[in-house]
Write a sequence for this structure.
């Protein structure tokens, strides 16, 4: 391993049972883009380009955990001990990218910083049979906001968006998708 390349401090995070981010520790990592070719444009919070992260071997690095480095949020997809000697690890991560925002779970609650992806004009079945309505969908990282419920508010670029409903009844514990309406 080229130790001079481990030049980025990163927080190692885990999502606890109550869907809150828990800081495990910080460590030095090296972050590089994994894709050599053209990466498609992101159609959601997940960047389709993979990120490679190198680190000294650490038993606390597991699939499903997160790294927060500066303004970047990375979900760890795989961890490999490349030489098999517990000296170094190579992680493949998905970067969660989006617009800076704040999230307020209910009136009077503290606003939490987060990142969101807004998709405008998304088609969904309407309330009446055969009717399609075009709405706005918002994606947010579960580790930053938990599982927002209808009535929660996101502030994005000075515009407030109220959660009107959930796109799916379940999420994948990484991204939560919601229907939102401008307040």
């Amino acid at each position: 391993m080229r130790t001079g390349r481990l030049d980025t401090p990163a927080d190692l995070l885990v999502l606890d049972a109550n869907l809150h981010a828990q800081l495990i520790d910080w460590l030095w990592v090296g972050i590089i883009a994994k894709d050599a070719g053209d990466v498609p444009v992101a159609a959601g919070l997940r960047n389709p380009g993979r990120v490679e992260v190198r680190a000294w071997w650490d038993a606390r690095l597991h699939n499903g955990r997160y790294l927060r480095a500066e303004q970047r949020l990375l979900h760890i997809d795989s961890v490999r001990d490349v030489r098999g000697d517990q000296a170094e690890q190579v992680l493949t991560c998905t970067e969660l990218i989006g617009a800076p925002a704040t999230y307020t779970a209910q009136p009077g609650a503290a606003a939490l910083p987060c990142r969101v992806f807004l998709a405008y004009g998304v088609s969904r079945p309407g309330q009446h049979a055969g009717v399609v309505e075009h709405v706005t969908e918002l994606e947010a990282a579960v580790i930053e906001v938990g599982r927002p419920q209808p009535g929660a508010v996101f502030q994005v670029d000075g515009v407030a968006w109220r959660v009107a409903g959930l796109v799916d009844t379940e999420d994948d514990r990484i991204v939560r998708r919601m229907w939102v309406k401008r307040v």
Remarks:
- Helices lie at 142-145.
- The chain has one helix and twelve strands.
- The radius of gyration is 18 Å.
- The first strand starts at residue 8 and ends at 15.
